[in-house]
Amino acid sequence: MDAISRRTPSGAVMALAALAVAIWPELGQPVLAVVVALAVHAALRPRGRALALTLSAALAWACVLALGWHFASDRFEVRYVWLYSSAELPLHLKLANLWGGDEGTTLLLAALCISLAAGGALRARVGPNLSPTAAISAWLVLTALWLAPFAETPPEWLVQSASQGMNAHLMKPWMLFHAPLVLAAYAWTLALAEPALEALCGRPAPWPMLARTRARRAWVVLTAGIGFGMLWAFEDAMYGQVWHWDPVQTAVFCTWCLLGAHLHGFGGWAVGRRRWQVMPWAAVLAAVTIPLAMAVTRNPVLASSHRYVGADSWVSHVVLASILLLAAVGAGIAGRRGRADRLPATDRGTQRLGMWLVQICFLGAAAIAAAQLLLAFGATALDLPRAEHHKPFLAMLANLTTGAELAALRAAFEQWDVDGHAVGRALSLPLVAVGLIGGWYFCRRASARVAAVSLPLAVAVVAGNAVSGGLLTGGYQGTGVLSQQIVAVLPFLDAGLASGAYFALGCGAWLLASLRRQGARGVSAALPVVAIHAGLVLALWGGLLATALNSYTQHEIVFAGEPTEWVRDRHGFALRLTGLDMAPLRDGGVGTTGGVHALTRIELREPGGALVDGQTLYRDSRAPPERYDGPLRQVCELLDYRYARHTATPGYLLQPLVDQGLWRTTQFWIAPGAVVESLAAGGSGGEVIVVVKTFPFLSLLWGGLLIMLAGSAWLAFRTPGTDGPTPQARPR
Predict the structure, then answer these.
(1) Mind listing the pLDDT tens digit for each residue in 217-229?
(2) Residue 185, Cα to own-chain centre: how many angstroms?
(3) Does residue 303 carry a pLDDT above 80?
C-alpha cells in the first residue's frame, strides 16, 4: 500500500471510511457497492484505472479494518460478529474470526486482489483495454456484498444469547496464520491470469518476469499456508494427521502442482516455441482452481471437514472459474491466429528437456487429483452408493443430529468425498519420475559424466525397490492406523524414497560443483534452489516414514475411587483428572445461557515419568435460536459447531495430547466419557481408554518444510521491483 499512498490520498480515504463504517456498520454495504463500481470502471476503462483501483483498494481495506474493529469491540449487533465471536475470547482470536466465515474470507480475498491490481496499474505504462485482475476483484467484492458481512443481527437472537461464540476447534494459534496465508496465495495466483491471458493473445509484454514473480510468491505463501494447516490438523481431534485428501485439500493440491509446473517452465517460454506454449495455460488453470477450491468449500455436494455448512456462494465462484476458462480459450484461439505466420523456434538441449518433463509430471499430478475430485462429484450426481469403508469419517456424526430440519444435514455425512488411497497410489508414478528426472538434471549441471553414470544406477535401485521393496517394506510392523491400506503400496513408497534420495544427492553434487567453479558467489546463487528441492525431499521422507511406520496401541485405565489421584495401567501410563466441576463453567465464552463448558483438566504421564501437557475436557450445550425462520445458511452456520463435536457424549477433547520428540512424535487420544458420566450420576469411578499413536521421523517433515520455505522465500522476495512489465522474451 505504500506505493499507492504516495500517488493518491488513499491512506486518508481508507482511514475515514474505516472510521465511518466502524461507527455506523450499516454504511458497510454502501461502501462495498462503491468498491464494486470503481473496480468495474477500472476493469473496462484504461483511463483513470490506477486511480480507480487505488481508491477501491482503500475502501475495501477500510471495510476489512472496520469489520476487524467490530470483532475487537464485541459489536454483536453485527450478525457476522454474533455468529463467530464472543466477549470472553482473547483479542487475537476475536480478530482471527474475521476470516472464520464465508463473508469475511471473500471480503479479505477481494481486498488482496484489488491491492495487486492497483499495484500493477500504477507500475504499467500502458495497460490493456480490459484488466482481468480488476474484473476478478469486482466479482469477488460483488459476492461479498451479496453475503452482507455488515448485516444486522436479528433482535430475537440477541435476546436469546449475547453471541453464538467461536467454534472451539478454531481456538488455536494456527487460526491466525493458516487462512490468511492461503488467501494471500489465492490472490497472487488469481493475479497470474492477467499476464497469462496477454501471453495467450500474443501480447507477452509482461511475460514471463511478472508471471514468475507472482507465481513464486503464490507458491511460497501457499506452501506456508499448507504447512500451518498440517500442523493444525495433526493437533486437532477432527483430523489427527497431517493430510487426508479432503476435497478442499485436493483442490488446493491441484493449484500447488499447477504453480509448480509453471515455475519449472517460465524460463523456456517464448513466442513460437511450441513445447513451452503450455506455460500460460498452466498459469490460467492455476487461477481457475482458486474459485473452484472456494466453491468446494461452500458446496453441499461433497463431504468435507473444511466446508462452510449451508453456505450457498459456491455458484458465484463456479461462474468466476467458468469465465476465466472461457477467456483463456478465447485468448488462445486469438493468439494462434495471430501467430499463424510465425516459424517455431528451435528448442533443443537435454537440460531443457528435463525441465519440460518435470512440468509434465506436475501437470500429471494435478490431473490425477482433479480426476479423483471429479469422480466424487460424478458419483454423487449419478447417486451411486459408496462402500462403507470409503465413507468419510464425518459419517459417524450423522447419528448425532436431532430435529426434523436436520434431515438434509444428516444425509450430507453420507456423501462422497475424495478417495485418498486411490490418489496416493496414482501419484506414486509422477513422484518417482520427478525424483529421477530432478536428480539427473542437477547431476548433469554438476557433470555430464556423473549424470550418465548415476542415472542408470538410480533407475536400477528404484526399480528394485518397486519390485521387492526396500526400507519401508523391511521395517513395516503392521501396527499402524493405516495398516490395511498401506501394505499394498509399500514398494511404491520405497521407490519414492529411493528416487528422492537420488534427487537430494544430485542437488548436493551441483552445490559442490558451484563451489568449485565460482566459489562463494556460485554457492549463494545455487543455495536457494538446493534448499527448495532438498527440503522438499526431506519433507517427503518424513511424511512417508511417519505414515508407513506409525504404531497404534490401546490402554485401559480404571478409576475405582477418586479420579483426581494418579492411576496407572500395566504398561506404566498414568492418568488423573484435576479441577473437577460438573457445573456449567464458561470456557472460551459463548454467552450466559450456555455454550462450551470446561468439565475437568486431564493430565497424563508416560511410562518414563514425563508429563504430557494436559488438556481440558469439554461439553457443548449450544443450540440454534428458537423460532428461527431466516435463511437456511444461517441455521447451518449455527448448527455447524454441534457437528464439529460429539455433543451426544458426556464430554470430549478438542485435540489429542502431543509429545513432540526429535525422532518420534506421539499422540495420546483420551476418551474419559465413562468417568464423566459416572460423576454426573453421582458415582466415583469409570474406565478411561487411552490410545497411543506414534509417528517416527515426523520432525523431518517439519524441518524439510522450513528449509524449503526459506529457499523459496529468498527467491520470491529478494529482487525488488520485478512485479512489473518486462520486455518480451525472444525465441532462442
Answers:
(1) 999 999 999 999 9
(2) 10
(3) no
| Angle, CA of 672, 674 and 678, to the nearest 5° | 120
Strands (E), 506-626: 551-559, 567-568, 574-578, 596-605, 611-620
Alpha-carbon distance of 14 to 12, in angstroms, equals: 5
pLDDT at 32 over 70: yes
Instruction: Report whether pLDDT(588) > 70.
Output: no
Q: For the chain, first and last CA: distance in Å?
A: 38
Q: What is the pLDDT of residue 720?
A: 45
Burial of 129 (0-12, 13-18, 19+ CB in 10 A): exposed
**Distance (Å, whole) CA 317 – CA 338:** 31
pLDDT at 182: 94
What is the C-alpha to C-alpha distance for residues 134 and 103, in angstroms, rounded to an integer? 20
What residues contact residue 182 under an 8 Å CB cut-off, 6+ apart?
Answer: 222, 225, 226, 229, 252
Q: Give domain limits for the chain.
A: 1-166, 185-375, 421-549+700-705, 552-696
All residues at 6 or more sequence positions from 679 whose CB lies less than 8 Å from its CB, including other chains = 563, 580, 582, 686
pLDDT digits (tens, 9 = 90+) for 36-87: 999 999 998 888 888 999 999 999 999 999 999 999 999 999 999 998 888 8
**Residue recorded with cell 513422484:** 431
Specify the 3-state DSSP secondary structure of 668: strand
Three-state DSSP class for 564? coil
Which phi and psi angles does 659 have, rounded to 5°?
-110, 105
Closest-CA residue to 502 (of 435, 429, 433): 435
CATH class of 1-166: mainly alpha
Nearest to 670 by CA among 580, 561, 576: 576
The whole-angstrom separation of Cα 178 and Cα 165 is 20
CA distance 23 to 26: 9
Radius of gyration, alpha carbons of the chain: 27
Quick check: bond before 208 cis, omega within 30?
yes
Give the max Cα distance, the chain: 89
Compute the distance between CA of residue 252 and CA of residue 245 in angstroms, rounded to an integer.
10
CA–CA dist 512, 516 (Å, integer): 6
**Range in 96-105, 283-292, 435-444, 606-615 with the lowest mean pLDDT:** 606-615
Residue partners of 228: CB distance under 8 A and separation at least 6:
174, 177, 178, 181
CA distance 482 to 244: 11
Distance CA 21, CA 25 (A): 5
SS3 428: helix
Amino acid letter, residue 387: A
With beta carbons less than 8 A apart as the criterion, state whether 209 and 202 touch.
no
Residue ranges of alpha helices (H) inside 588-697 are 632-643, 673-680
Query: pTM for this structure?
Result: 0.87
Q: What is the mean pLDDT of residues 614-633?
A: 61
Nearest to 634 by CA among 403, 401, 312: 312
User: Which residues have CB under 8 Å from 384's CB, separation 6+?
Assistant: 416
Task: Report how far residue 565's alpha carbon sits from residue 335's, in angstroms, rounded to the nearest whole number.
Answer: 76
Question: Under a CB-based contact definition with an 8 Å cutoff, are residues 199 and 207 in contact?
Answer: yes
Is 167 strand, coil or helix? coil
Beta bridge partners of 615: 602
Provide φ and ψ at 525, rounded to 5°.
-75, -35
Grid cell at residue 488: 499394498
Segment 123-150 shows an average pLDDT of 86
